[in-house]
Amino acid sequence: MADKTTIFDRYTSGARLNHWINAILMICLALSGMALFHPSLFFLTGLFGGGPTARIVHPWIGVLAMCSFLGLFIRFWRYNLWGKDDSAWMRNIKHVVNNDESKVPEAGKYNAGQKLVFWLMSILTVLLLTSGLAMWDSQFGEYTSIEQKRLAVVVHAASAVLLIIVVITHIYAAIWIRGTIRGMTRGSVTGGWAWRHHRKWLREEVGKTK
Amino acid sequence: MSSLQSLDLRRRSATTTPPPGQREAVEVAKLIDVSRCIGCKACQAACLEWNDLREEVGINVGVYDNPHDLTENTWTLMRFTEIDVDGRFEWLIRKDGCMHCDDPGCLKACPAPGAIVQYKNGIVDFISENCIGCGYCVKGCPFNIPRISKKDSKAYKCTLCSDRVAVGQAPACAKVCPTQAISFGTKKDMIAWADKRIADLKERGYKSAGLYDPPGVGGTHVMYVLKHVDRPEIYAGLPKDPKISPLVDLWKGITKPLALAGVGLAALVGFFHYVTHGPNEVQEEDEEAAAKTRRNSAE
Ligand code: HEM
Ligand code: SF4
Ligand code: SF4
Ligand code: SF4
Fold first, then answer.
1. Which of A4, A161, A207 has its CB closest to that of B291?
2. CB–CB of A164 and B113 under 8 A?
3. Contact A42 B14 (CB under 8 A)
4. Which residue in B103, B173, B224, B232 has the fewest CB atoms around it within 10 Å?
5. B222-226 vs B28-33, strand pairing mode
6. Three-state DSSP class for residue A24
7. CATH of region B9-252
8. Looking at residues A163-179, what average pLDDT do you find?
9. A153-166 residue pLDDT tens
10. CB of B259 within 8 Å of any CB in chain A?
């Protein structure tokens, strides 16, 4: 078995660092933000040293997270452009959910589900950044009217909840599709994984090493 | 401001447990009779003095308003308006400050447990040590009242002198007013007193005199007698029909628990999918197929 296993590089160490920095920052943001979102989660401020510090650090972590997300966006956007196959993949997503990928078009580096996650994350991140700046009263309080701030908190809270749901989906997919996580931890995947889930990408990679 | 109170709570911000309900308390109110105010600002000075606050010496820009707006130190401010009403010049002087809404938007918006409370008697108070300085109360308030301090990042506004009221005293501003334009008592008594004043004003020709106790926020525990209650906006922008903004209702209403349920549901759906469909594992045939693809292309 071992001799049959081929290995393919998927992420450079730079991309992996970028991804995990982003993941850590996003989790800190979700925790400090959700602490203010609902009374039953206010105890989460304790993780950040109490209410005032949680309130102070959240937007600064947000700024860092936006920088790191920009890095990921620049690295990955090209591979996430939508194609005709992606629409066909999406229409037949129920087969993927049932662990049968033979009934959907072969996926390139990313399948349509992953692309959707990528674009949802990008859009929600931009919404969170703009609304977050508009409600950052301690730094930019004077620049927005009270009515604009009210709109901003609604947009911010709604996009945050959607983003958290997208992130849950993203994490679950990585757990469910075995062999995925090593791509982001060790940078490589097995050929079998690529054959099973990203066959078009496998063919491209194989073509390159000719 | 205060932390030691002998007053029972009716509401407490960001708190899901019920408040104590056994003891009864009468609702209080402060009545500001704008028609009697001479704009001497004794109330403004009394407020600074009683609450140990100091306002910075400002600059004169040609109006009597001093300072120019409410601040973390100035919890009440005389706002002066010169206006022609029905062809007659009038000088309107309104004592601005927290209205102590019966349905307070500031409290609704506040995310910090116990940073804003409403006592049984109707007074809305900020409990500073619980305040995290997020400024949500500013977004929640329909009257643009709370101010966040630059010094300690906490929200401040008129307390209706809850510390004095708790020991049976009238607010400092009411006590000091030389024309008795500010009175304080039970809300019922204040409405009765206002009715007398309004009848008097009507007799003197002010047909649209009336009481400002806006129902959109459940009534207020600071009320005005206005000569022109049909046009409150002319009193330096007093809102005509103040309500908690629909955006704030949307943000703080049923959507919050629904959103939390949505997040929980996403995790649950994932878990159940795993339990029913199991992990998607790479099979030996996949590895063989991949190896074969590579061999073929190498040839
Ligand atoms: C540049 C990015 C961001 C900025 C500048 C920002 C800024 C803010 C600010 C100023 C607040 C008000 C509380 C405070 O002052 O700390 C807030 C609340 C919040 N933030 Fe962010 N944020 C950003 C990104 C995020 C992200 C990525 C998430 C979620 C994953 C998030 C989730 C939340 C939540 C849930 C709240 C509470 C909303 C509510 O009270 O309903 N934020 N944010
Ligand atoms: S700033 Fe206002 S909303 Fe925020 S915690 Fe303090 S009192 Fe509550
Ligand atoms: S006027 Fe504003 S600050 Fe005062 S009780 Fe009403 S909502 Fe709160
Ligand atoms: S009631 Fe007390 S705190 Fe409020 S304006 Fe009057 S003196 Fe100031």
1. A4
2. no
3. yes
4. B103
5. parallel
6. helix
7. 3.30.70.20
8. 97
9. 999 999 999 999 99
10. yes
Q: Would you kindly state where each structural domain of chain B is located, as residue ranges?
A: 9-252, 255-298
The confidence score (pLDDT) of residue B19 equals 86
The encoded tokens of residue A26 equal 């996003």
The pocket around ligand 2, CB under 6 angstroms, is made up of B 109-110, 112, 115-116, 126, 131-137, 146, 148, 155
Over residues A3-14, the pLDDT tens digits come to 678 999 999 999
Residues of A tagged active-site: 170
Report the residue among B15, B110, B156, B157 best suited for mutation to probe ligand 2: largest number of ligand atoms under 8 A from its CB.
B110
**pLDDT exceeds 60 at position B3:** no
**Strands B147-148 and B28-33, bridge-based pairing:** unpaired
Which tens digit of pLDDT belongs to each residue from B56-107?
998 998 899 999 999 999 999 999 999 998 888 999 999 999 999 999 999 9
The CATH architecture that domain A8-208 belongs to is Up-down Bundle (1.20)
Q: What ipTM did this prediction achieve?
A: 0.92
Chain B closest-CA separation from residue A2 CA (Å): 10
Mean pLDDT, chain A, whole residue set: 94
Residue of B nearest to A95 (CA): B277
Contacts of B221 (CB under 8 A, 6+ apart): B27, B28, B29, B30, B99, B100, B101, B102, B121, B122, B123, B124, B160, B187
pTM of the predicted structure, to 2 decimals: 0.93
